[in-house]
Specification:
This protein is about 40% helix and about 15% strand. It is an alpha/beta fold and about 425 residues long. It has a seven-stranded mixed β-sheet with strand order 1-7-6-5-4-2-3, sandwiched between helices. A five-stranded mixed β-sheet has the order 8-9-12-11-10. The chain binds pyridoxal-5'-phosphate.
Amino acid sequence: MNKPPNTGKNDSAIDGGKDSPKKNVLENPVKQALENASMDTLAVRAGQRRSAEGEHSEAIFMTSSYVFANAAEAAARFSGKQKGNVYSRYTNPTVRNFEERIAALEGAEQAVATSSGMAAILSTFLALLKSGDHIVCSRDVFGTTTVLLNNYLAKFGVSSTAVPLSDLSAWEAAIKPETKMLFLETPSNPLCEVGDLTALVSLAKKTNTLLVVDNCFCTPALQRPFDYGVDIVIHSATKYLDGQGRSMGGVALGRAELMEEVLGFVRSAGPTMSPFNAWVFLKGLETLRLRMEAHSASAMALALWLQEQAVVEKVFYAGLEDHQGHSLARQQQRAFGGVLSFRVAGGRQEAWQVIDSTRILSLTANLGDAKTTIVHPATTTHARLTEQERSAAGITENLIRVAVGLEAIEDIKADLARGFAGV
Ligand SMILES: Cc1ncc(COP(=O)(O)O)c(C=O)c1O
């Protein structure tokens, strides 16, 4: 007779793998019912597996390893002949729950969760590129992505060229025979420039390159890059997927054939997502659309108000009709998101004075939080760029970025007005 596992006889049922002897109680009926479900339903229900305890909210499986019924089962699991959990660097039920839910929302075949957004970007690069390959990357991506390419990927023989996000002829001109990947964020940080997904997908197809989109600013609630035919979507889950600034995490999504490569790298190198963080993100996804709509509505109201302030020279928000990316953003996005930036009259001193006079807004570089954040890009998020690079990217000394949270918009305006009074 088989020796029962000593930490609970339902472990294998929880994994819900095809060959699992006891099926997850809810998995099959829920999966069938969700086939035609809307995004709102998927955000709350997709990926849930329920243990024999009958918990309603998703359980957190804080375990590094799993026990086997007997030595033969251990051998079968290790050889891959039997599906099921072995070790949490390979699989974890809570992490899988998050992966299935975000994949359902993005419309992806497969998702691979990672320990941070940068880990998702690194894992995608290292799994899918090799020495001698070349990447064309938008100049307007998160600064650490540029550092990763210039300081680290370059050491291993992967070169890159930076191009302005919205200059399609620059993308085309930068592609060489060894180019394997095109990488961008849209809208961009902090000037909200917009990349043309339809045009870039056709360029990627024509040149046989993989198109990777960091969808962190919009999330699938506002923009679904797979609907345009992109190959890979990346998220820093740390931002809006969490939504309350609590946990670090990331995810790469795409066709199974590509994600199997990324998964292989993550399992071997180890930048896995913690089960606790996966649970935080699962809960974040349940309210994602409602939050993104609220962030967008408040950011729009703030952008319009900022335009009327005498000390504000220019506001950058794709929701404004005079913004260069407005009509493209209208086509690609359901709303314009929570991040905007503006230039105050003067220079660094005036910008710092506005920031230092606020009392409610948090002075921090993070975004995607219920709490509104304010930052001076030229001396923080973009400080590593040279002065010339900053000026080419439009990051002037008088620029301030605000990631609008969920506080009452009148309180956010009043806090900024406090700062404007002194300029
Ligand atoms: C657009 C974007 N992508 C990626 C990242 C990196 O994510 P993480 O900080 O989770 O590593 C960030 C972080 O701010 C970001 O803003």
